[in-house]
Amino acid sequence: MYYSLPLxxxxxxxxxxxxxxxxxxxxxxxxxxxxxxGTKTVRTCDxxxxxxxxxxxxxxCSTPPKCLDSSYSYATTLSCLPSTxxxxxxxxxxxxxxxxxxxxxxxxxxxxxxxxxKIVKGGxxxxxxxxxxxxxxxxxxxxxxxxxCNDCDQGICVQFRRSSVMxxxxxxxxxxxxGSQVEQRGGVSVDCxxxxxxxxxxxxxxxxxxxxxxxxxxxxxxxxxxxxxxGGCLSGEKCESIKGERWCCPIDExxxxxxxxxxxxxxxxxxxxxxxxxxxxERCLQLSSFSSQCCPLSKNRRDGTTxxxxxxxxxxxxxxxxxxxxxxxxxxxGYSCQTTSKGDLFCCRDRVDKIHLFQLKSxxxxxxxxxxxxxxxxxxxxxxxxxxxxxxxxLDFTCPFGYTCMPSSSTPAFLCFFDSTLIMRSLFLLAxxxxxxxxxxxxxxEIKDLPGVDFDINFKHxxxxxxxxxxxxxxxxxxxxxxxPSTDPLIFWFNGGPGCSSLDGLxxxxxxxxANEDGKTLRENEYAWNKFSSVVYLEAxxxxxxxxxxxxxxxxxxxxxxxxNYEAVKQWFLRFPEFRRNNLYIMGESYGGVYVPTLTARxxxxxxxxxxxxxxMALGNxxxxxxxxxxxxxxxxxxxxxIDEKTWNTLExxxxxxxxxxxxxxxxxxxxATMVEDIFQFLWGGGLNPYDLYRDCxxxxxxxxxxxxxxxxxxxxxxxxxxxxxxxxxxxTVLDWVRSTGGLKMxxxxxxxxxDVVNYMNDRAVRKALHIPFNLGKWDICSDSVTTTYQKQxxxxxxxxxxxxxxxxxxxxxxxxxxxxxxxxxxxxxxxQLGLRRTLGKTPWKYDRQIAGFKTLFDGLTFxxxxxxxxxxxxxxxxxxxxxxxxxxxxxxxxxxxxxxxxRKSMSTNSVSSLISxxxxxxxxxxxxxxxxxxxxxxxxxxxxxxxxxMLLPDDCLLRVANxxxxxDLVNMLRCCRRFHxxxxxxxxxxxxxxxxxxxxxxxxxRILMRGTTVLRLCGTNIVDPIPDIDQxxxxxxxxxxxxxxxxxxxxxxxxxxxxLISSTILTHIxxxxxxxxxxxxxxxxxxxSLSHLDLSMCNNLNPDHLSLILYRCGRTVxxxxxxxSKIGREGGMVIATRCSSNLLRLDLSGSASSDNPDDSIDDAxxxxxxxxxxxxxxxxxxxxxxxxxxxxxxxxxxxxxxSVSFSRCYGIDPHKYLLPNQLTNLxxxxxxxxxxxxxxxxxxxxxxxxDLDLAIxxxxxxxxxxxxxxxxxIKMKPFCQVN
Length: 1284
Fold this sequence. Notes:
This protein is 26% helix and 17% strand. The strands form 16 sheets. Strands 29, 30, 31, 34, 35, 36, 37, 38, 39, 40 and 41 form an 11-stranded mixed sheet that branches. An 11-stranded parallel sheet has the order 42-44-46-47-48-49-50-51-52-53-54. The longest helix has 18 residues, at 558-575. This is Carboxypeptidase. It comes from Pristionchus pacificus (Parasitic nematode worm).
């Protein structure tokens, strides 16, 4: 990532100024290269450079290409932007070049313009020079002299001094390679075939078969060096001394015997940044590109360490700046990571100053008005000393707001610069410069590839830093909504401590990805809150997580934290302005009970000057009152059986004057205070899990317990054991102890294990993906330094909550009821003491038909308990909290429940419907909602949102009201109500539709099917007008299952059934039981190639011709077929036996006798054909077939897989046949044998179920076999609201 202003400016469309575009572009790359340009912008390295270019300081630079246009064939070395004005010198045009996506200025003749354009910075060559400074090498050939333009492949043509001869000049890199310099004498390269190369150069063969001296040496491993060590070596390189100079050499994988800088052997491998893998007297060093090792530190290394040239290392705040590996860039110009005299790695001054590609104007010179940002800066001076303010480098954020750290043009130092001329010229350019000066934008912060993720991420996520004050920078991690980020709510989340990272919420609780135990990978969170909202996780205050203080001072308090959080929130909205209109919710847990109300109150105060759409705040197990937390903890312990009766009675008798209910346990003194202290010592240090009373502690003592220790000094009643005599003497109360001591001392198991998150966040690849600078320290889930220095100011949040509610900002407080750290009794009593009007008493709220907790509603506030949840309710009761927060941000818990007052007035649902209809006044086309999935957008009249009564209805009442609404009002309800719009517009809501036993317009069915319905039930449905004309308005469905059992015989129903069959080409399950089968219906069925289950039982007018047509194609795919009681006769049975294939597994031919002739039914020939063509049958029903004989029974017994058969009332079969041994598991012979005979068969066939009641009625291909009457072929159905 690049933090310099020029680089970031290039990622935006260039703005036309008085300075020509080609003059601006010529300074962006080194003198022998030009920037790669598109139609509007300069190509940056973030977009990946083309193959014929390379990345230099964030810009794609390439050698000057040739012009493609034959009429403009003379190329210059000037890049241009064709879509801007003034982009080329006079006499030239901006044309495409031989390089892909590259535009340069081209001329039609070789003019002075084209010649001069090749001389970048410095004009024409002097008399002593031959080539311009941009391409300084003119190869000399003893036989030919200088290279002429005719032989010039890689270079530029220039006029040789003042003659008419054009010679070829080439750059250093073309001749010797990247990073190398050619030795020159007298303006031309040294011919090492005749002359000896100087020290530091070696003789090299070039591509033109000439020998020149290149400033590159052969490394100790035989490979060629790549660059000077002064410029910094890359990963996979090491610095070697070659011919008295230091060069970067590639490291072989085979190299072994890696030694520490002091010559000693490393003790073990380590990971840079982990912090704890090496011993105290060691540090982790990158000794090669393949491993990092623990090496010993020299004593007093920072005090006595000097660089190899005798100078002191670069220091900040009187402390030398160390670095992880040789060649790592240091935060100040002219310094690089080098080995010191004691073998450690520090930032030392380079022997050769680095070349700055962006030379700035001198800070003492006047700034020309025509210069363009960022090339005209003014330095900032200190108010106190009047001296120019310095900084350490591009990664330094210590400059005041509006200033950026840039290299000085006259000294090696970095200064804080600001461009004052741009303010006068354009406010827009000023905003652009300020944004770029910080080196951060939403695009720069985007996480491109998060390590350890093995699932598809369908949302954008960002990580970066927000300046909260002059010296404090807060790290944030932002995950966009997976649904619709442009309209979904926005949540800012804070964890507590104080001193704990909000990324605990991201990676442990409600984030889209959760850390695995290996500390390297992430798994998908099914109950991520960003499925319905966008969430920003802010690490606060500075010193927590990756948030930092540039001056090292992390001491803070409640007011300072809230002020910096508010500034960070504003900075975030400036970086993501598109979210300013989204509904905003501030949420947190634990000591977030202080963070969130104080921040929300500041936002309320600042709404007039900084407008954001603040809607609500939420606290989870919030620490809201110090005295209540102490007092209720004792009562909570007694209520959960942790205090015996003797102790409780003693407290009541000796300390509370016989009435403990009204006793203030925080005010007791003497031996009473000691008793309370003993109770606390057991609660917090007795081996119980304070976060969850019924959850076990981590058994391993070496697990990370930092979060628990932070909590004990934060929200837990902080007391250390004092001597009883001292307590009695000083007459101190429990509250005095809390405020005067540093916190409980914990013994036993640490209870919480956060090593997975800690290891993941400290992974080098993760830090890189999150854009974390290398010089920031190790990440931990909680900061002990912040906690121990944090100064609490507020012990009661009541004034803040009252202020927020008064500002019409909704408040939600939820508490896990088995948390001891911030127990629900504290929250419950706190809310009750606010004095708000109660609108709903304590009542259960449910999730998945189970009581999930209890809710109490007040004016402007909702209090929830979460049954069985501990301190981290979103983590340990994820489904319930997902539901509760989703309802909260969708304002389900948040309004006055008028439905209760309506119920008390005994108003009918019709009256409620009238109120709703009156409150919804949008004119809309109902058909647009159903016809075009995804095109229906939610709108709500601003003046009438408060009358959206449908938001107040419980589900059961909603269904009753929906039955009373017209189609127009039903659609408007979905359009105005966020809660039901999300349901109505989600494709999953329309997958399974049940219109059974009701009258439905055919056009309504068509519109609904177009929303992606796959399962449709029309059992007993009466379809009425209007019926869509499929010829005029063709439509196609995704139906796979259709149950049209007992569909009415009206022409409308038959016409709509035909439309459904025509438009559904992937049907697999169809039931037309009891329907009228016409030739048209049979024809449509014959066109479906995917049928596997077909129920044609009890159909009217089903004849052999219809069957032959239906089974013409699907006979090869159907596996279950039911034509029972459809009176198809012998001919129809023979059609089935002939058309069906070996795929047929279950068949019901019961009741096949023709209605015209009772003797016309299936016979032995039909069964013989069936056995021949369908050998895989395992269930066959042939009841009521009097023409069958023993032959059919014997043929069926030859089927190898046959398990179930029904011969009820088949009087032509000898009953003794049933006594023969067979492989059947089920046999039905109703109406043939007496009870004694049935029992005799059962005795002879013990493994066969004879006349089992479950098989009395065939289930073959039937959509709703008993007892699953609410399911279609095993798919659960739900009723659809009546529409009128």
